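Q: What residues go here?
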């Protein structure tokens, strides 16, 4: 994963692990997982 962290300086800490994922049709997505909260998977974007 590619870890993105920010906000530690203002109390709004964000820590996410990003991944590139593909489905059976070959579509590619940029997804992430939060380290806080429900830790569910989220889609950040789609590669063209």
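A:
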């Amino acid at each position: 994963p590619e870890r993105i962290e920010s906000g530690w300086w203002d109390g709004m800490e964000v820590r996410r692990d990003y991944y590139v994922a593909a489905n059976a049709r070959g579509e590619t997505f940029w997804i992430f997982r939060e380290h806080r909260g429900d830790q569910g998977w989220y889609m950040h974007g789609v590669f063209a």
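A: Context that may help when evaluating the design: The two ends are 21 Å apart (CA to CA). The longest strand covers residues 14-22.
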